[in-house]
Amino acid sequence: MQTRWNHRKALTMRMVMPASAIARGYRAQDERGMALIGVMLIMSLMLMLALAVTFTSLSDKSITSNFKNLTSGFYAAEAGVNNLHRLLRNERFVMASLPDPPRVAPGRATLNPNDFIAAAEKAFNTTESFPNNAAYRTKIKITDIRVPYPVGDNDPAHLAGRVKLINPLYPQLGQVEPYSVSYQLESVGEGIAGLNGAVTLVEEGVINFKLLVSAQGGGLRVGSFSEFALFLDRSDPYNPEGPFIYQGMGPGDRFSGRVHTNERFGFWTIADGSDAPTFRGHVSQSYQSASYYRHGAGMPPPPVDADSDVVGGVLVAPKFLAGFERGAAPIPPTGNAFDQARAVLDGGYALSAGPPTDGELHTALRAAGDLSTSLAEPKDPTSTTPTLAPGVYLPSDGETFSGSGIYVMGDVDEVVLSADPSGNRQVIKITQGKQTTTIVIDIDAGTTTVDAGNGTRTLRGVPKDRSIADKGSRSAASLYVRGDMASLHGPGRDAQGQPIPAIDSDFAGGYATGDPRHPVAGGSVTLTGDLTYETPVVDAAGNPINPNAQNVLGIFASGGNINIPSDGRAPDNLTVNASMAAFSLKDADGNSVMGPNGRPFGGRVRSDVLDFQGKPFRGNFNLVGGMQSSNWDNLGVYDGQFHGYLYRGKWDPRYDQGQSPPFYPGYVVDTGGPSGAPSVKAQTNSPVVLSYKRIYYGRGQTPVTR
């Protein structure tokens, strides 16, 4: 019993343990559990942190490796594109498909499209590896090739793309064949050959070229300065005229088409190096070094043999989208395939025949106000100095229009060009003092109507271009002014502020000035209004449209300047559709005629910004075409703000197809080659880049139009 009691007692004591003791026991157990959980959480957190550090390190290493590989691949792909551009500018690209000696059929295209495509695509399938294990592979696809039509093709739609004899009267001189090739080139760059990091650059463009072909060999080469979006015989950025320390192509300037100087280009930007000039076509210069400058950097640094330069710690880097070639061969000195004054009489048939004599002028021309009466014979018919009285003259016998244009003796106050919206007619209004002469060329009717203020007279026929740029039945007139043209413009702007067309859709015009007797006093043209085509040839972005459009305009100042006034005589954001040339005169020894300031007179496309202080910013000078000159000059000035005009250029690709303005200045070069086997030479084979896109790891970006 005692034992049982002890047992019950012990049992009873456990059953009656106080509540505080039980709570303390549970609390101790909870604390141990919480501590265990806390330790586990801390260990888990440390593990996660360690994993994060490990993954970050591995990811950074992978990203860095991929970035380096991708960057290396990009540079390799760029190298491939540059190599393809070099091949595109090589004669072998054009003529690789021709046999040796070439087979030439007069009046017909020499290149066979299928052979050309096969040879080109084979030549461009290349691969190259670099010491850093990067590599590229390239290929090209010819998407279209436009071959010229035969000389005898009479389809009006083919006028712009025919084989053209250098001179119809002398077929032995050879022929010019215009071609246009659309291409898509692809360059795949790999950072490490065979691994990831591939970058593909896809570029689309057009290369236009001409073949000068002779069935009897020889060494004749013919060119037109309209082939250039910008041509400068002389360009010295360090020696500008006026109170300036530098001149060149600068902020906001945009050029399309081929650009060349026989000396050195200068490129500049504002102080921070932004908005550098951009070039969509091939750029070349004859000097090996180019000049770069930025506003506010003090005196310009010396030239360098590079595509860019760091000036005062800021990179000055123009955008050469189709390459910048230094040390290129000079373009032959300026000259003419025919004289513009003579072209009025014979339409350019007489190649390099020189200016007409006074006797030829008096025989072929009649005064616009008295077309029924022949001109009196001059005292010295053999003289090349005309003795015509001031006025407007036309090549006519009083019944028919027999020549190719209008001859104006003396200074002209105003010339207004307009496309008649009611018909296919070109209107030319010429004002000299109180006398205004209106000439209406009716292309459809084939008539020319003259109103000199004393009644109208209608002549049978319209002016025709019979030169190398023969347009068949298309009207092409030359307006030659022996003196200054103080104002040349179109009909103005409409209610929406848009230019009203000045050049009829089926009209081609060449407008030239010159006064060899007094070069310092005459030969300049001043543009005071918009001059636009009735049928546009480029869209707002500069892409070619209406390639068969016939309207084309050329403006040529021989011995003078083409002036673009910034004093308000011309509107803001002036728009001109034309190729414009201004060449200084040379003496018998080939030296430039000097002006009173000791510089060659004339030969400039310029704005009056020597006294720029107080003159406002006039917006853009929008040129669809090109400009060529003997000397570089300025359209605007920057002294912290702009004065005058900025240049905005869009290329007219028809100039690459031989459709230069009528009677436009050009050059004929005899290379001295002997007669013999047929010869073929290439001209103007520089690419114009239309678009490109980058593709990373097979994923393409949105195409970027250039």
Outline: globular
Number of strands: 40
For the biggest sheet, the summary is: 14 strands, mixed
The low-pLDDT segments are: 1-15, 349-353, 468-473, 516-521, 698-706
Q: Strand fraction band? A: 25-35%
CA-based gyration radius: 36 Å
Distance between the termini: 114 Å
Oligomer: single chain
Question: What would your notes on this structure say?
Answer:
- The protein is α/β, with parallel strands linked by helices.
- Among the domains are: 177 residues, no CATH class; 107 residues, no CATH class.
- Helices cover 16% and strands 34% of the residues.
- Strands 7, 9, 12, 17, 18, 19, 20, 26, 28, 30, 32, 34, 35 and 36 form a 14-stranded mixed sheet that branches. A 9-stranded mixed sheet has the order 25-24-23-22-21-27-29-31-33, with no helix packed on it.
- A hairpin with a 2-residue loop joins strand 14 and strand 15.
- The longest helix is centred in the first third of the chain and has 70 residues.
- The chain is globular and about 130 Å long.
- The relative contact order is 0.13.
Kindly summarize this structure in a few lines.
The protein is of the alpha/beta class and 706 residues long.
Chart the SSEs and their pairings:
Layout: H1 2-15, H2 19-88, H3 91-95, H4 113-124, E1 126-129, E2 135-146, E3 164-165, E4 175-190, E5 199-214, E6 220-224, E7 228-234, E8 254-255, E9 258-261, E10 266-269, E11 278-279, E12 283-285, E13 291-294, E14 309-311, E15 314-316, E16 319-320, E17 324-326, H5 340-346, H6 358-364, E18 365-367, E19 391-395, E20 405-409, E21 414-420, E22 425-432, E23 435-442, E24 447-451, E25 456-460, E26 475-482, E27 485-489, E28 507-514, E29 525-527, E30 552-558, E31 561-563, E32 575-583, E33 604-606, E34 617-631, E35 636-638, E36 642-650, E37 666-670, E38 679-696, E39 699-700, E40 704-705
Parallel strand pairs: 7-9, 7-34, 8-11, 9-12, 10-13, 11-16, 12-17, 20-26, 21-27, 26-28, 27-29, 28-30, 29-31, 30-32, 31-33, 32-34, 34-36
Antiparallel strand pairs: 1-2, 2-4, 3-4, 4-5, 5-38, 6-37, 14-15, 18-19, 19-20, 21-22, 22-23, 23-24, 24-25, 35-36, 38-39, 38-40
